[in-house]
Amino acid sequence: MLRTLLLLCSLVIAMLACQPKNDAESFIDQAIEAHGGDAYQNKRIEFDFRQFHLVLEQRDGQFRYERTHQDSSRAVIREVLTNNSFSRFINGQLQTLDTAQIGKYSRAVNSVAYFVLLPQKLNDPAVIADYVGDSQIDKQAYHKVRVRFKAEGGGKDYQDTFFYWFNTKTHTMDYLAYSEGGPRFRKAIHPQMVCGIRFQDYINYKGNEKDTSSVGNYDQKFNARQLPELSRIEQKNIRVVPLP
After folding, report:
1. In angstroms, rounded to a whole number, what is the distance separating the alpha carbons of residues 221 and 209?
2. Strand 62-70 relative to strand 52-59, pairing
3. Consecutive H or E run containing 82
4. Residues 6+ apart with CB under 8 A from 237
5. Residue 13: inside a domain, yes or no?
6. Which helix (H) or strand (E) segment is 67 a member of?
7. Following DSSP, what letter does each residue of 197-221 receive, concatenated?
8. Contact criterion met (CB below 8 Å) for 137 and 143
9. Residue 34: exposed, middle, or buried by beta-carbon count in 10 A (0-12, 13-18, 19+)?
């Protein structure tokens, strides 16, 4: 009897291990590969974004993001975010921050890093991805995927919802939309490969601030030219080097 139970347990474990990924996870994996795959790992990525200089380092699941800029008084502000901590320095002096300040500054640093590292970040354990259907944008076919986050590991804003459109031919992530912080729709432009990693800028379109529930349909609004351009998201002077 015990031998039979052990055999059944082994079969169940084997069946679970062999279960295929859902469509959304497969599309994300294809996009990550199209954008660089393993080229993201163990790298130091530097770039300029607006008035900020950023350094992103990733090694074996650990990250270190650094953002530096000068304020209006020419003081040099350096912020460092890791898996476990956040620090802020002004002219080299470590600042004492309260909880609200830590949250505000760390989210600002993480937000820039998150979008630059897409779609690689969609493979994080906290991600919940669902395939919500096919779509067409400017006569090109796309797979539309909704991304939400688990409470554990999803950060303070784990209730955020994003939508991504993956090109059915190239598997690249060409569009994305989100409502948190104001409904937005982004179109990828100016793709470039640097050391095997695909970087892309975005045209940022503005949605209806009073309606944050319909961003999943922003592909239709974009096709109908109902989303006005708000800004451009551009990374300049990109440099990628292996971590020692």
Report:
1. 14
2. antiparallel
3. strand 76-82
4. 46, 47, 48
5. no
6. strand 62-70
7. EEEEEEEEEE--TT--S-GGGHHHH
8. no
9. middle
Instruction: Flag whether 7 is in a domain.
Output: no
Position 112, amino acid: V
Q: How far is CA 177 from CA 107, 152, 174, 216, 243, in A?
A: 18, 23, 11, 7, 32
The whole model's pTM is what? Answer: 0.85
Length of the chain equals 244
Kindly state whether residue 123 falls inside one of the protein's structural domains: yes
Q: Which domain holds residue 219?
A: 22-242
Q: What residues are paired with 28 via a beta bridge?
A: none
Assess if residue 158 is contained within a domain: yes
127 vs 207: CA distance, rounded Å:
24
- Tokens representing 187? 């179109």
Instruction: Give the separation between CA 113 and CA 110, rounded to whole angstroms.
Output: 5
Number of domains in the chain: 1
Residues of the chain short of pLDDT 50, as ranges, are 1-20, 154
The domain spanning residue 236 has which CATH number?
Answer: 2.50.20
pLDDT digits (tens, 9 = 90+) for 87-134: 999 999 999 999 999 999 999 999 999 999 999 999 988 899 999 999
Q: Would you give the end-to-end CA distance of the chain in angstroms?
A: 55
